[in-house]
Write a structure and sequence with these properties.
single chain; mainly alpha; MetI-like fold; 2 domains; two-stranded antiparallel sheet; 17 helices
Length: 310
């Protein structure tokens, strides 16, 4: 085996490529597709951020003018704190609530019941995301929405009261954060469950014999053993939420006024509403830099349990 390995190492690179040509030919369509759909768009965005870009006409190089204009744009600057108003509670929800649900299902002793619960939390994924947003738009309808109807039925508000959940600056942000309540559908619960099921039963049993309560077991055993899942949901949740503007695009259109504008939605409006593609590309570059910086910080400062010892 060693002799064969040394012979392969002595062969020139082009000969090794030729011998594995079938594999390279089969990989070629995938690589080309990856370059076109995943690498070309961001590279093009970086390049055109320095242009007054007209995709169907002449593009003019403007240097850093787009970035200078963005840094004095009040709408963009005001969208940054709005982003964090959405980001912090939604990130906490996406990390904590599925973990709580996973712990509850893990505590169920009946295996059939546990299986049914796992299926139940996965079923919401069948509905497309846009359908869910449109459903919540109807729930928040000021005149005939389900939420207003429940409040009237329970007597918490009068029968003639109209609550404009999405049209009032006082309620719109809380309404968008509340979308997808109770926030447990999807694969997050199952990923946490997989981590919990990998914990040795002997460790859990020894913890129980030593008199550990459920809360102490979760803190001392479960959370350290789920450090990989926690970091995954924190980092990828951070990346996804900074980029997300689906609710603004489908439900509020950034309103009322500019109340629910976030940088991602502002980029979308400038690109496809104002036809300022170069300006929107510059906004995209700033969003990319922000996500990269936040991801680095998240990796640096999120160390749980066993990771700290290593």
């Amino acid at each position: 085996m060693k002799e064969n390995g040394s012979i392969l190492k002595k062969k020139p690179l082009y000969k090794r490529i030729w011998e594995a040509r079938i594999a390279y030919i089969l990989l070629l369509p995938l690589v080309v597709g990856l370059l076109i759909t995943s690498y070309y768009p961001p590279v093009s965005g970086f390049y055109h951020a320095f242009f007054d870009w007209n995709p169907t006409g002449v593009s003019k190089f403007v240097g850093l003018d787009n970035f200078k204009a963005i840094l004095t744009d009040k709408v963009f600057l005001n969208s940054i704190p709005t982003l964090f108003v959405f980001l912090i509670p939604r990130l906490a929800i996406s990390v904590i609530i599925p973990l709580v649900m996973a712990e509850l299902i893990f505590s169920v002793k009946n295996k059939k019941a546990e299986y049914r619960y796992r299926v139940a939390v996965l079923l919401p994924m069948v509905a497309p995301g846009m359908v869910t947003l449109l459903m919540w738009q109807k729930i928040y309808d000021a005149m005939n929405g389900l939420l207003t109807g429940i409040l009237k039925l329970t007597g918490l508000v009068g029968p003639d009261v109209i609550i404009d959940w999405l049209g009032s600056e006082k309620t719109v942000i809380a309404s968008l954060i509340f979308i997808n309540f109770p926030w447990i559908g999807g694969t997050a619960v199952l990923i946490y469950m997989a981590g919990l099921m990998n914990i040795s039963p002997e460790i859990i049993e020894s913890c129980r014999l030593e008199g550990c309560g459920i809360l102490r077991r979760i803190i001392k055993i479960d959370l350290p053993m789920l450090s990989g899942q926690l970091r995954y949901f924190l980092v990828f949740g951070l990346i996804g939420l900074v980029q997300d503007y689906n609710a603004q695009m489908v439900i509020t259109s950034g309103g009322p006024g500019y109340k629910t504008y976030v940088p991602g939605y502002y980029m979308y409006v400038k690109a496809f509403g104002a036809d300022m593609m170069g300006y929107a590309s510059a906004v995209g570059v700033l969003i990319f830099i922000s996500i990269f910086a936040l991801t680095v910080l998240a990796f640096k400062y999120t160390r749980f349990g066993t990771e700290e010892k290593s």
